Amino acid sequence: GKQSFCAEDSFGLVPHEGAHTLTRLVDYHGRVLSDCALGIFENETGGRIAAAGYYPYSRLADYYKSRQIINLMLYLSGGKLPSYVDSYIRIRNHTFVDGDRITVALLNPTNEPYENVDVAVLGDRDVVHVYTKDGECRASDRTRRTETHSIFTVGEIPPYSIVIIETV
Predict the structure, then answer these.
(1) What is the mean pLDDT of each successive set of 10 residues along the chain, which is 168 residues long?
(2) Which of 27, 28, 69, 116 has its C-alpha lying 20 to 30 A from 79's C-alpha?
(3) Taking the alpha carbons of 135, 139, 144, 150 in that order, is the dihedral positive or negative?
């Protein structure tokens, strides 16, 4: 991990026995400042932990940091994260789970309209219902699949609008 364009402090970590190091701190001369800056650990009961010693939640506007956080959350949940936005946009995701039923509320808090927003929903699902702010309901077919999630594309989310995705 290199602290590019970031005026925040970074800290090296001392990994617990059995932990896996994902990143280390390296300066711009190639010198290793710490052998561990981000690590993961799984205990004997299956509990998972991730620890980061460098700007773990800031700079979320950066694509690579955003992907890293999504991948960490997928790891920590054991692949059972109910939903996540798989597009690089600024959107709020509120997910509600009731048994097998998953409802996702996506809020666009910006002045920009978003188009073709990819949303991952846990499970092998072929179709979801998408409700717009006008109360319109349309079916959306799965566009692709990961190992644990079905990906659906929401056509448009206007500025300061909400879209509800409901599993069928």
Answers:
(1) 64 90 87 91 93 69 82 94 94 96 96 96 96 92 96 95 95
(2) 116
(3) positive
Query: CA quadruple 56, 60, 66, 69: dihedral positive or negative?
Result: positive
- The residues near 38 (Cβ < 8 Å, ≥ 6 apart) are 1, 13, 21, 22, 23, 50, 51, 52, 53, 54, 56
| Cα–Cα distance for residue pair 78/107, rounded to 1 Å | 26
DSSP string, 82-143: SEEE-SSS--EEEEEEETTEEEEEEE--SSS-EEEEEEEEES--SEEEEE-TT--EEEEEEE
For residue 39, which of 26, 25, 27 has the smallest C-alpha distance?
Answer: 25
